[in-house]
Amino acid sequence: MKIVEIKNLKHFVGEEIKIRGWVRNYRKGSSKLRFVIFRDGSGVVQAIAFKPEMGEENFEKVKKLTIESSVELIGQPSEHPHKKGVYDFQIKDLNIINIAPEYPIGKKEHGADFLLSQRHLWLRSATQNAALKIRHTVYFAICEYLNKDGFYRFDSPILTPNASEGTTTLFEVPYFDMGSAFLSQSGQLYLEAGIMSLGKVYDFGPVFRAEKSKTRKHLTEFWMMDAEAAFMEHSENMDLQEKLIRYVINTVIERNSAELEVLERDVEKLKKADAPFKRMTHREVIDMLKEKGVDIGYNDDFGAPEEEMITADSDVPVFIEKWPKEIKSFYMKRDAKNPDLVLGSDLIAPEGFGEIIGGSQREDDYEILLKRIEAEGYDPKDYQWFLDLRKYGSVPHSGFGIGLERLVQWMTGIRHIREVIPFPRMINRINP
Ligand code: 4AD
Ligand code: MG
Question: Closest ligand 1 atom to the C-alpha of 226?
Fold first, then answer.
């Protein structure tokens, strides 16, 4: 007998086939009728058990099914009598695989802490399933775009000897008789070596930050896509980010309409974001915030409330560029027009989703970079390999890093980052 995935049922109307999965829910129609909401990962279908059709014995088996029991159903897909494009499944026979005891996640509202402690089960819910499918789309859309644009995948290491994004958020791990290693905060520095061989490269993997902050946007382990290109300058870097993000928006809208509906995402808002992004300098943003009455100085960074104000009147993401060098990383290239500024950019998503990308042109001058490393209080010996890149065929180059979960939050409209990664790691949670 043919085994079919639920998403393909429409091609098998009237044929006897088998589907395999889990009971999401069930309800009684009458003494002779039962409805089983059945899912298999690929989709969800209403399966119908009608005693006169399937016989007494099989109908009794259906009555045994509980929420999250696993089972094989044998029967025929049928077109819904009133709803076009909707398919049901007429059960004829079934093989019960496992009858689940009372499921801990019920229909009543559960607190976030309880749901997180049940994350291994919570993943099965309709909303979590939808969020994870959109995460899948976003991940592959990014790779597709870059592959097509001539970027090579270049995997950076996770165990590293030094910091890329400051020493305050480093996770330290014992490393044999060599002392300590650190979990990578971003693969960027290694990608800068990669471009000198391959021209344009990207990595995509987990990165780690011992973030002490407990916010809706911070994880201690999250996924980052770092891209880097030789000869790419600051404004081209932003052009690339914009094209890539707009490709992601369109791909999600195209491939995930069903999931966006489950999540009640306002798709019009996403469509409106697919237009030229705004660009403002850090200084212009400070001026704008001052005008709105915010007490902020020209060398200050932005927190979540400021980020929300920056995009409050904007349907599209906003680039904030040209930052004071004091508040950005050591590797950013100084602005030739103003040495107090660096050619960095943050991309702020609309609707309060905050920073989704950090990028910059990189310092390519050996002496200036050395001074920046010393000024940070780092030991230049640790960065000798990185400095070498400025010695042997240095070229102008730029890159950026997308926080996958931040981008998925925005696409899905999910307010808390813990729901867009299978198993979130936060300052107060590492289980399950
Ligand atoms: O802005 P960040 O720190 O930039 C870098 O790490 C650069 N080295 C990237 C590069 O140029 N290749 O981090 C990049 C993005 C942020 O914009 C944000 O979206 C996300 O990573 N991010 C986090 N996401 C979840 N939890 C955290 N704790 C995050 N910290 C940063
Ligand atoms: Mg940043």
Answer: 12
